[in-house]
Amino acid sequence: MSTSDSGLSRREELLAVATKLFAARGYHGTRMDDVADAVGLNKATVYHYYASKSLILYDIYKSAADFTVDALHDDPTASARETIYHFTRRLLVGIASDVERAAVYFQEGPYITEWFTEDQVAYIRKSETTVYEHVRDVIDRGIASGEFYDCDSHVLALGYIGMTLGSYRWLRPQGRRSAQEIAVEFSTALLRGLIRDEAVRADSPLGLDVSDIAQTR
């Protein structure tokens, strides 16, 4: 497989360029000619790597979906509040590292049944369900252990997903606050509304002390 000057394979380079174009112009507003021109290849070469524009979009979607599922892997011995914080940190850092990918995922979401095969749509929907169920189950675990107040874990999980994954709209890698700092703010606000123990809620809602948080940045 040929490699560009950036060290990426041609396929990876095409995917990165297409992601930026789709984020800026939309899937419908981007032609294969645009991708070829931006990467400095002729269209026939682009079709050698991707037989259709929808296959490029699916690779963007699959990459985003796989990242989100992987980010939710946690230490089963950790407390629910620690798990929520680490989820949030990994998700926000990952989104900040590739804002365009997240933008494409959400901008084109209403239309994927038109462009993807049934199996491709099923893969994406399964990933989304896995994320929701994982977050809901952590909240339920916290409720069952007495760590969290009783609440509607279904509603809270959906709200959490919207809060974190929707951050692509405004999260910037070089912004005033880093993704790690924003994760601390998000997690602290959320967990102080959930934690039963007043001392824990006030002093260590993330399950970490200041030095531990600093080491995760």
Q: The biggest beta sheet, please?
A: none
Residue-averaged pLDDT:
90
Task: Report the uncertain regions.
Answer: none
* Anisotropy-based shape: elongated
Structure description:
With 217 residues, this protein is mainly α. Helices cover 68% and strands 0% of the residues. It has helices spanning 10-25, 32-39, 43-49, 53-71, 80-97, 99-107, 112-115, 118-145, 153-165, 179-192, 198-203, 210-215. The longest helix has 28 residues, at 118-145. The chain is elongated, with a radius of gyration of 20 Å. The mean pLDDT is 90.
List the helices and strands and how they pair.
Elements: H1 10-25, H2 32-39, H3 43-49, H4 53-71, H5 80-97, H6 99-107, H7 112-115, H8 118-145, H9 153-165, H10 179-192, H11 198-203, H12 210-215
Helix pairs in contact: 1-2, 1-4, 1-6, 2-3, 4-6, 4-8, 5-8, 5-10, 8-9
Task: Tag the structure with descriptive keywords.
217 residues; mainly alpha; 0% strand; elongated; KstR2_TetR_C; transcription regulation; TetR/AcrR family transcriptional regulator; HTH_TetR; repressor
